[in-house]
């Protein structure tokens, strides 16, 4: 099972315009630092957070228990002008896990309902043996040569966003998630997605929008190790001049 | 004219996998903190940076001169394990400005060529009277009620990404840029885009994907003030129950 | 036993002037952020770091094992332009623990010897039952009324530094340490120091330099809990109008 | 004239124990990040902040005007759970400047009076030609060989603190300030202090406590440049095997 946590800044929208609109640069700094901060705390237990929408962060939290979540909420309350609520869920697929986490939090009230620092747990992985994470690290083939070094910076980010949109659309149908992690990189928590289905998705996108993608896949009992194996898989594909669409690593030598 | 700066981490891709893939959480923290850091320094001169691809940041830098740019490069070199190169360009439209900035940097060598801490200036706004920024702050109508509080966190971010993809596609054709700034918010540096064209884009997206958007527009000699006016415009539309598609503010009472 | 870790930036002095002196503000930011960063990671396991000399940090690390230390070194290497080495020691007194930690690291080579990212462990607390921390939180009576609000900011900091110097001198003789933690606050890891000795030290300082101090003392199996109890003790003394010199809390109701 | 700013966290003491004592590690992170943050903003205008007591920061702000100060207050309010008030003063000596800055702020109410985000300006340097900063960068001769590599980490910091206490005592009598900036380094804003007096202070300390110190001195219209020249002076003394007590640099070749 994969465990996911939804981290939501409480009543953030109204706060950003009270008493009048806050300076955009300050909000951008606040959001980026809050993300980096939560990341550092969740990573201490081998979890991983994705920036998602910044005011709503999704994290793979296999390995974190209730106290770990409460300590993060406390540390944010003590150092930021805002508080965070969390929802936690575990399931066979990442999409279902985040859905359960979201519902658990929504049942406690709306994001702008005045609800404050709630920790709503649908379910946690109790038995370490049930903890399993499959993650795919996907990137664009030769992005530096084909985009970064020849297209304008915005046009390159437009192409990367286009690839993201297509990947999100197709992976979501398979119960997998997809997050942009910078550069031309995407991370997909994808428990239950088999290699054939992922390969087909990459082939279809190549045919539909002409963007060549590859994916390293890793499997472990936590996202840190799964992501690392996925990175190794990606390196192996590169060394093979991107001839493989995907490369799975299930254990490290 | 609008002045834009492309900030690129030197040889970042190879660095992230040397000697072996670096822990993903560390890279996420590094990228977010570098962005927040550059933001704070550029905001000190009323500029604004967008996270774009994190390893490539685009900023509106009206008001920043050559020394301001060099000081930022120095401060990053002194505090991070990576260095940054920059390209600067100014033009009548944001897309053209970032294109000139990108070309200036590309001419100094590729992103992975070993080129290090380059400051490539195509042109800077010399005369303050030539400095002009039009910015549109676009958001989704009633996102909390229609998405955040009823859909799963991932499905909401999927819809927001979909809106982003459509906005990027249509605004780009008009020489405007579009950046996601968190939540359900987008910022578009859009010098030269008239109100009718922007209104049509919002109406078309409503019809094509059923997502209702609104835009506050601001105009000033720097992006900080233009963005603030755009925020005020957005507030006015909200107070009018989203009856307006757009609201332009050209000066503050 | 109390476990202490010495965290030392590798070859820092020479780095700060290579190739020429680095901007002082950048160094100040680097040092403060490295401290905050290590703090966040050590606090995740209920440890506590003191800024000490910034390039040499002393931490109480009861509860942290070898892997916890290695993960911190890796995360710093991945996000900073410098690396850190560590020495770890455990003993009956804090002074002896940091002495053992220092010797373990010194035996691996000098701070400017080119030694890089060493983890030198003299000994770790293996059995949780052996883990014990006594911490005293000491502050100046009515500092706001007697100093902050009437003396110049520098003269107040001069008096606080004077109190620190006297406290360091006397506590050190008892095998206890003393760290300034901001404002008019000091924290003393002081396993083995009895209440009579601490009271006498506070009385002597009052007589010698006329600065009235009080101390809350806490005891637990980790510094986070011990420091919290010490805070409660300090609050109780305040509520009693500073009539007590010290107040010990051994467990929370 | 030298301009100094006192930055004080509003009502900080009570906040740290409301509703109950906040986790010490969180407070340490908050203080260090607030310092680094203000530093980055003040450094953007070539000023320099000293951590002082963390809840009270003293900064040399030649080059910063009223708006610069207000922007910093706004950015802190938007990103931290606390607000800051500031006092500003300019005079012929650093001690007098910070005294005027402190008085200006004290006149607006006590640190715990509920006074919030005050900017109290006694006087600012209006004419750039009046702006002058003399700064001495003082360090301990061969600290690595004589202390760091042979004494315990705490005993070394004890000796450094002892040197600081003696330096603060003697420099204060001359109207100069002294701040610890990490390692074995001290920075003294010392407008008006002549070379003979500083030399005598270093000689006296050598005789009184046996700690050998040296000082690089710089003079410029802002602290960033003055500190850089002081660094160069220190390097020159090192190259001469610490034969000189002090070395003054008034301009860079």
UniProtKB/TrEMBL annotation, chains A, B, C, D:
Enzyme Commission identifier(s): 3.5.4.29
- Broadest EC class? hydrolase
Pfam families per UniProt:
GCH_III
- Molecular function GO terms recorded: GTP binding; GTP cyclohydrolase IIa activity
Highest taxon in the source lineage: Archaea
Catalytic activity, as annotated? GTP + 3 H2O = 2-amino-5-formylamino-6-(5-phospho-D-ribosylamino)pyrimidin-4(3H)-one + 2 phosphate + 2 H(+)
Which keywords are on file for this protein? GTP-binding, Hydrolase, Nucleotide-binding
What the protein does comes down to:
Catalyzes the formation of 2-amino-5-formylamino-6-ribofuranosylamino-4(3H)-pyrimidinone ribonucleotide monophosphate and inorganic phosphate from GTP. Also has an independent pyrophosphate phosphohydrolase activity.
Which protein family is it in? Belongs to the archaeal-type GTP cyclohydrolase family.
Designated name of the protein: GTP cyclohydrolase III
| Source organism per UniProt | Methanobrevibacter olleyae
Gene this chain is encoded by: gch3
């Amino acid at each position: 099972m994969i465990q996911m946590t939804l981290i939501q800044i409480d009543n953030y929208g109204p706060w950003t315009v009270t008493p009048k609109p806050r300076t955009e640069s300050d909000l951008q700094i606040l959001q980026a630092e809050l993300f980096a901060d939560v990341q550092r705390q969740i990573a201490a237990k081998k979890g991983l957070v994705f920036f998602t929408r910044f005011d709503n962060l999704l994290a793979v939290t296999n390995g974190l228990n209730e106290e770990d979540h409460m300590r993060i909420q406390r540390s944010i309350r003590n150092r930021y002008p805002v508080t965070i609520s969390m929802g936690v869920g575990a399931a066979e697929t990442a999409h279902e896990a985040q859905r359960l986490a979201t519902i658990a939090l929504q049942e406690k009230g709306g994001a702008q309902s005045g609800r404050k620092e709630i920790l709503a747990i649908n379910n946690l992985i109790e038995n370490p043996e049930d903890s399993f994470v499959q993650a795919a690290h996907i990137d664009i083939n030769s992005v530096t040569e084909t985009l970064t070094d020849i297209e304008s910076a915005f046009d390159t980010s437009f192409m990367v966003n286009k690839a993201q949109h297509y990947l999100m659309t197709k992976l979501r149908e398979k119960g997998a998630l997809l997050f942009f992690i910078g550069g031309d990189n995407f991370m997909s928590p994808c428990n239950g997605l088999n290699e054939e289905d992922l390969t087909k998705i990459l082939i279809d996108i190549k045919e539909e929008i002409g963007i060549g993608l590859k994916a390293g896949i890793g499997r472990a009992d936590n996202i840190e190790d799964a992501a690392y194996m996925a990175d190794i898989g990606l390196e192996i594909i590169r060394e093979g001049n991107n001839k493989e669409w995907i490369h799975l690593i299930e254990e490290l030598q």
